[in-house]
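Below is the record:
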Amino acid sequence: MKLIDGKATADEIKKEIAEEVKQIKAAGGKTPHLAAVLVGHDGGSETYVASKVKACEEVGFDSSLIRFEDDVTEEELLKTVDKLNNDPDVDGFIVQLPLPKHISEHKVIEAIDPRKDVDGFHPINLGRMALELPSFVSATPAGILMLLRKYKINPHGANVVVLGRSHIVGKPIALLLMQKRTCGDATVTVCHSQTRNIKEICLDADIIIAAIGVPEFLKGDMVKEGVVVIDVGTTRVPSTETKSGFKLKGDVAFDEVAPKASYITPVPGGVGPMTIVSLLKNTLLAAKKEIYN
C-alpha cells in the first residue's frame, strides 16, 4: 500500500504558482486576487476559508474575505455577488457553501459571473466542462485528477466507481474520468443512496472515489486487492482526543481498506489540500484570462 500524499503534492504546486506570480509581478502585471464570501459560522466552512486565505498569502495572491451573519437576506448576498462581478480588481471569487436554508444556493451560483467562477459551479462552466470545452473545473475533481497524474495512476480502461452524485464532486469527476483525456477513458459507475448491490459493484472496481458524505461507509469487505481509493469525505465527528473536540473522518474505513489498497488517500492530508490548490490554479487562470478571453 502506498499513501497518496495530497499535502506534499499541493505544496509542490503552490511553489510553482508562487514562482509564476513572482514573474507576473516582475513584468508589471496585476497580482491575482481571490475573494471569498462566508455566511455564518459553520466550523468546517470557517476552517476551509481560513486555509484558502493562508494559501493565497503563500503564493503571493491578494485575498479578501467578506463575512455575513446567518440572517443575511438573499437580496443582500446577491448584491455582494454583483459587486464582486463588477470589481475589476477581483479576478475570481467563491461563495462558501452551504448557505442558510432561506437562501437559494442555485440562485446565488447562477448570479456569479462565469469568468470569475473559480469554484467551477456555474451551469455555464459545468456545461462547458461536460462538452470538453475550456472551463473552470470544480476544485475537488480537478485536485483528484492532479493526484492521479502525480502518482501515475492511469484510469484508461479501468473500472471506476464514484460513490456520490453531488454537483460538486460526484457528477463532475465521473464526467471527467470518462472523457477522452490524458487522465480519462475510464468506464465509470456512479453509486448513490438508492443504488442496489453497492458492495458487489465496489468489489469490481479498480479505482474507487468515495464522496458519499457518510463516515467510514466504504468497508474492507467492499474492495478487492490492489484497488486505488480516493477518499473525499471530511465529516466532523466528536472526539475527546483533540483540543478542538472533533476530528475529521473520511468516507473510507481506512484501517480496513488500506491493507488491500495499492494506493489510498488519508483524511486529512489527501484530497483536501488539493482542493485548495486547484482553487488557486483556477484563480491564476482567471487573472491571466486564459479560459474566457
Summary: The chain has two domains: 29-114, 139-272. The domain at 139-272 is CATH 3.40.50.720 (Rossmann fold).
